[in-house]
Amino acid sequence: MADRGASAPSLPDDWPAHPDHPILALNRMGTFDWDLDAGLFHMDAQAYEVFDLTPEEYDGRPENLAARVPPAESSRLDAVVSRAIKDGSENYGAYFRIRCRDGTSRWTHTQGYIRRDGTGRPRRVVGIVRDATQELEDSEARSLRDAQGQALRRQTGVVQAVTAALAHASSVQEVIDVLKDTHGIPNLGATSLVMGLVEAGRIRLVAEGPAGSFVPGTRITRIDEPYPMSEVVRTLSPCFIESPEAFAEGYPVLWPHITSLHITSAAYLPLIAQARPIGAMGLLYSDRLGFSAEERAVLVALGSSIAQSLQRAMLFEQEKDLAQGLQQAMLPRTIPSVPGADVAVRYRSASAGGSLGRDIGGDWYDLIPLPGGRVGAVIGDVQGHDTHAAAVMGQLRIVLRAYAAEGHAPATVMARASVFLDELDTDRFATCLYAEADLATGVVQVVRAGHIDPLVRAADGDCRRVPVEGGLPLGLSAEFGSLEYPVSTLELDPGETLLLCTDGLVEQPGKDLGDGIQALIEQVASGPEDVRALADRLIEIADERGGDDDVALLLLRRRGSDTAQAVGRLQQHVASGDPEALALARHMVRAAVLAWGAQDRADEIELVADELITNALMHTEGPAIVTLRVLGGGERRLRVEVEDSSSALPRRREAGEDGVSGRGLLLVDRISDVWGVEARGGGKAVWCEFRMGAP
Fold first, then answer.
1. Which residues of 500-516 are buried (b: 16+ CB within 10 A; e: fewer)?
2. pTM of structure
3. Which of 108, 292, 534, 562 is the most exposed place for a label (fewest CB within 10 A)?
4. Neighbour-count burial of 60, counting CB atoms closer than 10 A to its CB (0-12 exposed, 13-18 middle, 19+ buried)
């Protein structure tokens, strides 16, 4: 109750009015006489009882009633009196709360009559004060409780709506967005929200309220610092600040930084999950004072719901980070540089949203450098979207890479990988496509195990699907008893691009797979020429479409200029007892001879090379390495070398009339222009040369 001034210290003759009225006292009413000029507020004995004061404790100054009238109530009461004085009213009435000696509060009612002089100037206010607790409980309290009940129901509805929305939040930021949404915290009347998470004994601020409200030095704070969030984390109890004065008194370090926000009250709640604090939240208000018991209960319940959602979101993010880390660890760290080719690889995780573990899958890619300037390109997809699928994918990728690096033919690589997955203690299968490309000749050997076909984009941008005969998915060999993987051959001309991808790039819910592949063909045809830019564009389209499957993508473009430089040397590993490897070596020889301009002698060179390879495999115990080279220096020559691990030199001998062997070296001697044998460490190399025409 504000002081109305002390410009006229003299008191009226009849002051104070109605001292110690017995009838009023019987009704537990006290009287007061307030001299506005002198600024003195006289109370009778019953009024002292209403205010729970003794005459010795009060000096007659109205501002010193603050010991019993809280600042918020005093401000509200002062506004009522001021309004009555200014608008010419003769009287006023108001209910307000006082704080008793024992710390409890009770309702009080005051009614005052304003006395004015002849000019209309207010000079005195006389009136009564009385204990209105019982009255409010009996009458007006019912209306108040009804209003509070409506507010409580509204707030409870807000809490229920926020809780329902939080059920879909899968990250800390999504939790904050739900709370800041127009249907969230603002419906509780809060002006702004602040939130911090406990990390390593400190509180990290994750939401800082309205723009420009950041307090320097509070981004990361210790739990023992004098801030409200630190206090509620320490005590595990909510903190309700009911007035600006209480805020300034309780937190003098923080208050000066937020005075511009015009905060009138605040509620700070500990966020507790599984009996430990994971953070704290503050709701700041600019249009209210104090909190009822019901409002406090609602806010505490809201804090509990938010804590559970935050913990779930934090666990989800941890699972996601673990899954992505595992996925990245299983995929190749780097892709090797391939002479004669431009390569781009991309991986996009699934975006199912909401299910733990759905951001990881079994899709993978790989690029394997092989002898003789060849390269193996792999794309695959292990069944499932979980950490187990990623673990199986990692093992399968390493095994398939090892089989390819050993020099096995593509069909053998795929068959052995299928056996490995079948013998692995898992119920997963995998689709896969393995393409072995000779960048010097452009010959690509393709093996498919239940996977989608590759695409080839021509140098002019035209794109086509390449049908590849396929076998069963990897891991189903034992169940269906089939290890046959047919090999298809395609020619990759300079400037053409081979595209391998998993079905996540083409499958769309409710649409046919063929339509998805056709859409991909059109996207590739209209995409940028650079393989990296094209890969980025295809992943962007997949992101825009969304979906619950991950995507792996590999693009390999054969260069024209680099291919010409690579012409001159090719090498092929031929494993012992592997007829498919022998057939692949024959194909490499013919393709190289044609690519290098020796068409006139292609049959002769292929026949001699086949004889040398067969001799090496029949008469030695290990594999053979076939090398083709173009030798310059005047006349161009094509040199064929077959290296094995045996040091025994071949002998030329005459075959009998009925003999089925013994003619091999005779054939080599008659067809080739020159031949010989060279020692190579623990083994040897048999070589022969053929004269070639002009390049």
1. bbbbbbbbeeeeeeeeb
2. 0.52
3. 292
4. middle
